[in-house]
Amino acid sequence: MRLTILLPIKILLEETVDKVTAEAENGSFVLLPNHIDFVTAIVPGILSFESQKGERFVAVDRGILVKCGGEGFVSLRQAILGENLDSLQQTVNEEYRRLDDKEKQARSAEAQLEAGFIRGFIKSGGSQW
């Protein structure tokens, strides 16, 4: 089965696989190449797949999985590919730290914009509003 993992800005993976294991809202499931056509919502967690390169893992956010014929497509908001669970955990932790820093910077910029707006409003006497 050909597995394609799609993100909003890139294709994360295109590979022939023998088995895909993921988790939907009603529990985990396994897809094999001859599985019936299938559509499900993916919940945040770990998606694993087996190919000639061995078992690999992807940390996934919410998304949709579609299996149609010999093709499997997973469309996700965010995903991180890892060779093993240890390296994947380390990469996910680093990404969360990076995103947390970006969020703090965005909140600081937002607070500065709000303060500037309020100062301008007070200087103008607020009578125009």
CATH architecture of the largest domain: Sandwich
Number of strands: 10
Q: Which fold name corresponds to the CATH topology of the largest domain?
A: ATP Synthase, domain 1
Structural class: alpha+beta
Share in β-strands? 35-45%
Shape: elongated
| Residue windows where pLDDT falls under 50 for at least 5 positions | none
Strand order of the largest sheet: 2-1-9-8-5
Please tag this protein with its features.
alpha+beta, 10 strands, ATP Synthase, domain 1, 129 residues, elongated, single chain, 1 helix, 30% helix
Provide an overview of this structure.
The chain is of the alpha+beta class. It has two domains: 2-83, ATP Synthase, domain 1 (Sandwich); 84-122. It is built from one helix and ten strands, in the order ββββββββββα. The protein has one helix at 85-123; strands at residues 2-6, 11-16, 19-24, 27-31, 38-42, 45-51, 54-60, 63-68, 71-76, 79-82. The strands form two sheets. A five-stranded mixed beta sheet has the order 2-1-9-8-5, with no helix packed on it. The chain is elongated, with a radius of gyration of 21 Å. The model has no long low-confidence stretch (mean pLDDT 83). Keywords: ATP synthesis, CF(1), Coiled coil, Ion transport, Membrane, Transport.
What is the strand and helix layout of this fold?
Elements: E1 2-6, E2 11-16, E3 19-24, E4 27-31, E5 38-42, E6 45-51, E7 54-60, E8 63-68, E9 71-76, E10 79-82, H1 85-123
Parallel strand pairs: 1-9
Antiparallel strand pairs: 1-2, 3-4, 3-6, 5-8, 6-7, 7-10, 8-9
Task: Summarize it.
The protein is an alpha+beta fold. The protein contains 1 helix and 10 strands. It folds into 2 domains: 2-83, ATP Synthase, domain 1 (Sandwich); 84-122.
